[in-house]
Amino acid sequence: MSENKATAVGHIPSGLFVIAVKDGEAMDGYLASWVQQVSFDPLVVAFTIKSDRPGYEAITSGKPFAINIVGDHETQYMRHFWSGYDPANSPFKEIDHEVGSAGGLIIKGAKSAIECRFLSKTQPGDHEVVFAEVLDSKVLSEEAKPKVHIRKTGLDY
User: Fold this and answer.
1) Is the pTM of this model over 0.85?
2) Angle 100-105-111 (CA atoms, 0-180°, nearest 5)?
3) CATH number of the domain within which 43 lies
4) Residue 49 belongs to what domain range?
5) What are the phi and psi torsion angles at 44 (to 5°)?
6) pLDDT digits over 91-100, tens only?
């Protein structure tokens, strides 16, 4: 693909998120940047994921999960998710977290968290787009601003 064609696409601002799920004793998550609200009634969000990401099976099988919104006040926990991790060594052993009222895995250092359940998915390209109903949400830091991410081009994260 032409980098020229993709330059302005990279300028579309997005947030930074850790999408996390608990499935029995297993706790998994991955760093996401493509998340968006897509419906008011019911309240639905969409995000992208590749099938090899940690937590994919649990999320798409209907386990409740949380979209943790990274704030500008605390970003250290993101380092665990930049390049992936060995599933036997879950980063949640080191990250302060809780299970929310709807069963989502909430990172206490996040700005806020949105607890969701899978509705459907489609695959228009190299990522799947997942649609999920919002079950609950929690604000963890009123003062923090959401972390905004701008890419150099639309060809890389």
Assistant:
1) yes
2) 80
3) 2.30.110.10
4) 13-143
5) -130, 140
6) 999 999 999 9
